[in-house]
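W.,

You were right to be curious about this one. When I first looked at the sequence I had no strong expectations either way, so I just let the prediction run and decided to look at it fresh. Below is the sequence, 143 residues in total, followed by the output.
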Amino acid sequence: MALKDPVAIFTASSNIRAQALCHALIQSGIEAHVIEDVSLGGLWIGGTLPGIHSPKIWVDRVDAEHAAAILQEHEQREAELRPAPPPDDEDEQVLTVCEECGGSVAFPASQRGSVQECLHCGSYVDVVAEEEVSDWDSEDEDA
């Protein structure tokens, strides 16, 4: 069925998100339609381009207020289910020892588990605490 007085109530970040939200509106009894971005800019080789890609959800003007409330409730539910970001522990440091030069190097805790360059000799260092390395040694002896 065609919308009598269409109004765009939501601009989604992707075609998939627009379709999912449109489906939620339809399940709530509101007639909704999505205008997807199928332009060359929107369907670029690596995927959609932010700023160019803008699929919109359209409803009748008389349903706009109710539809906006449903979308807002949907976004609140998504926010509640989204995992909380890890705490910013930039003050915490991981002290590790370079296997090449034996120098101790401190890295921010956010770099734990990564590979960085030793500040003393330039070799690559696994950013793990000394006690974690000693645990690995004891596991090798057990085997």
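Here's what jumped out at me. The mean pLDDT is 79. And, maybe more interesting for your project: The longest strand covers residues 6-11.

Coffee later to discuss?

I.
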